[in-house]
Amino acid sequence: MPKINTILFDCDNTLVLSEELAFEASAEVLNEICTAKGVNLEQKFTGPQLIVEFVGQNFRGMVRSLSERFGFQVTPEELEDYVRREETAVIAKLRAALKPCPGVDAQLDRLAAHGKYKLAIVSSSALRRVNASIEKVGHDRFFDPNHVFSAASSLHPPNSKPDPAIYLHAMKVLGKTADECVAVEDSKSGTLSATRAGIKTIGYIGPYEDDKKPEMEKVLRDAGAVVIMKDWSEFEDCLDKIEALNQ
User: Which Gene3D superfamilies does the annotation name (predicted)?
Assistant: First the structure.
């Protein structure tokens, strides 16, 4: 079996603590859409509510899900306008307050120093948002711009996790097989996307509240995560465990 030589990182709440900021902006735009479409919500959407329901999905997928739930129509032109508005609102929040996940910088420094692995980002989020995120926290120094992949921007037509298409696309561009790769994901949809592409996956539960960690560990294991990582300080051990499976 080929040796692992490539690490594919999700971005949101895996490399950067973006989900709370992003979903605040998403909620604001979704509430505007519901008002425009005549949907009478008992309670307006909030960021925490959307995190529970849609973590790991992109905004395009959220709008489509809500249009089906509430029975309103969204034209392709309207959808793209909403997506651009949400993306701009999210990026503004990220540029103001985004921070890296605790401990990830040390691991990326170590990986870059010994150069054993090719590093790439595989995200559901729009490419403009991913680039804004990694630039804000200084992670852009670790990733070749051509090795940052977005299901919302790199695929035609756009897609979203849990579909494996973005991982399959990334491996094709990188010239890698699934056996050469390890993915790091924090959500059910992301883990499903990677595992459906045949990639062994580390499930990262660090950003979740302590009382949610046991539940999320089960969710990610059920979605196919091979090992669970509670903190980035455990990354090297998690990678060793997966590499042992390839021998």
Answer: HAD superfamily/HAD-like, Putative phosphatase, domain 2
